[in-house]
Amino acid sequence: MISYGVVAHGGAGSPMELSDGCRAACESAIRMLDAGEGSLDAAVEAARILEDDGRFNAGTGSVLRIDGRTIEMDAAVMDSAGKIGVVINVREVKNPVLLARAVTGTPHVALAGRGAEVFARQLGFAPFRDFSMRVGRRAPSDTIGVVALDKKGVFAVASSTGGASPMMVGRVGDTPMPGCGFYAGARGAVAVTGLGEESIRKMLARAVYDMIADGTGAREACEKGVGMFAPGIRMGAIAISRRDWAAAAKDAMAHWSIIRE
Q1: Residue pLDDT, tens place only, 127-163
Q2: Does residue 143 have an active-site annotation?
Q3: Domain of 166, in residue numbers
Q4: What is the gyration radius of the CA atoms in the chain, in angstroms?
Q5: DSSP assignment letter at 197
Q6: Long-range contacts of 183-186 (CB under 8 A, 24+ apart)
Q7: Domain count, the chain
Q8: What are φ and ψ of residue 141, in 5° steps?
Q9: Is the bond preceding 166 in cis, omega lying within 30 degrees of 0?
Q10: Catalytic residue among 104, 143, 175, 193
Q11: Structure pTM?
C-alpha cells in the first residue's frame, strides 16, 4: 500500500534520458509531501519545475502554432478535495500551471485567453516572452503531468502543455479538459499525454480513473487505457492510487516516481 508519493512524466514521446528532469520535479514534490504539505501544491510545484526545464513541451519549452509566431498554452489542476482550476490558450505567462492553481481560489473553474492573462497580471505575474528554447522546432513530446497523494489521503493532478505541432491558433487539446487530460477523485489521480483529440473522444483520464475506482490496479488501468488506441496514435498515462502507481506509454515517455509506503 502507498502511504503517499508522486509520479511525473515528461510527455508521450519524450526520450527516457530526460527522466532526470522528472526526477528533479519529484524530488522537490516529495520534500513538500514529507513535510506534510498538500498533494495539490506538491503536484503544482513539480509541474512548475518541468515547465521551467525547457526540454519539455510546456512553459518555456512550448512550441509555435502553425502561423510560426504564436505560442498558446494550457494547464489544469485538480484534487480529490474538490479543487479544480484550468487556464486555456494563455500567452506570455511563464508558468501556466501556477495560474491554473490560482484559479482554484476564485469562484471560477476555467479562464481563457485574454481574461486569463489579465488575471495573471493582477496576480503580479510579469509578461514572459523568452520561449527561445523551443521556438521554430517541432515538439519532441506532448503534455507534461504530475500525480500525487499526500499524508491526508488527498489525491491531486497537475498538467501543462505548449500544444501539439503543427496546430491552428486557438486549438485546444485534452490538457485543460476534465476527464480527458486529467482527473482526480477519491480513489486516485490520472494524467494523460498524447494526441489530445483522441484523448478527448475517449475521455481517457476518466476512463482510466473509473477502472481504478472499480478495483483495477493503476498499472493495469493505465496499460488498458493506452491500449484503447490504434497503432500509430501516440499516447501515455500515469496514475497513483492507494494500491499502486503506474506509467504506461506506447513509445518512450520520460518519467519518475518517489513513493513512500
Answers
A1: 887 765 444 444 556 789 999 999 999 999 999 999 8
A2: yes
A3: 4-260
A4: 16
A5: H
A6: 183/78, 183/157, 183/208, 183/209, 184/78, 184/79, 184/80, 184/147, 184/155, 184/156, 184/157, 184/209, 185/80, 185/155, 185/209, 185/213, 186/80, 186/155, 186/213
A7: 1
A8: -155, 175
A9: yes
A10: 143
A11: 0.95
